[in-house]
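Quick one: structure tokens for this chain, please?
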Amino acid sequence: MSEAQALALAADADVVPVAPAREATIAPVPPPSQPCVAVVGLGYVGLPTLLALHGAGSETIGIDVSERRLQAIRARAVDLPAGDVARLGDALGGERLRLSSIPAAVAAADAVIVCVPTPVDAQRRPDPRALRAACASVVEHARPGQALVLTSTTFVGSTRELLVAPLAARGLAAGRDVAVAFAPERILPGDPSVDQHAVPRVLGGATPDCARRARELLAPTTALIHEVSSLEAAELTKLYENTFRAVNLAFANEMAGVCGHLGIDPVEIVDAAATKPYGFLAHYPGPGVGGHCIPVDPYYLLAPLRAAGVATPIADHAMDAIVARPAAVAARALALLRLGGVAPAQARVTIVGMAYKPGVADARESPGLHVAEQLERAGVAVAYHDPRVPSVRTAAGTELRSLEHPEAAPADLAIVTAVQPETQLGWLADVPAVLDATYRLALDGPLHRV
């Protein structure tokens, strides 16, 4: 696509394109104090990022290739904390926020932030297609003077491969014609106690001047920016963070098994160990690890290392244990059913919680869903209750819909995997057996743990 065509598409996207600068350098023309910023990808990271920049006074352009997602944003039918939903409503009612599904709209911005998902496939192999497509589009429509910041969790070396090198092939050198940086997201969905502005941001630039431009861009969104020496250092920081959490969560589940063998409450042990003011970071056991980060991101570290023959046994074993955890929950459920004299083919099980954790409506990599799939394979009739997740589809293609009144659905066993803040659990007292995979319930009656 030619530059003229790109700018024409940007105009069609209800944005005002900015003509390319004549000087192929950043230094002589400082960026505006309130730049126009385009955010590419309006998911759980991109939309809060857009709102933070808008709240700081910037002109903002939200870009997402999904018209369905844009419609949901315009209708405010999005999974955000109440405060962010209110801020979204204010932004939609003003003149400094525009939404577009046309990638060429980035040409109208002084800065571009890429926030697209980086999932894994069914075989746990990284699937960076969305990221590659987004970066290719940003490169195609980039113009001199822009600052380009990648935030998506990805392979070490991706920013250089997907932005710096192809920009150079277009004649746009990082640090001279454009600024390129990597600043991984640190969003914590579903936890209103964490103020995202207070969370420090790690940043690495392709050059010192690139880092300076990115720091100026992101400064209004965070209280502290920690600058590292390179793009690759920033990329590895994010992978290290989430692999660290994966290893510790796998160990927490392992220790829960040890506690069960010894007849000791694992949560009591974690809470007691956490009183030590140094050298210990509390991680709690559960039904598995879901969402878009911990069960996914470590593979962007491990896959290229495996291909290069670099051994990572601790991280490898941790990820294997995380993948296997829902199957262990399902096996425990089947054992409890048999103990109660109910064969799997005649069993009815209700799962409490289909979101990957409380406080969100996101079922990606949900432990509850993986447990349901394991039980489905064993012939068990599975139902679930989650007021924030109206329906899910299992790997076998079965559509499950949330029970509005779980107390009215006969069940031989209930499995608790995630308790939404609004979920009522009194009805569990009437279920013959309850498997608490959260380790947090205190109920009268037969309560079991994994």
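Residues 231-262 form the longest helix (32 residues).
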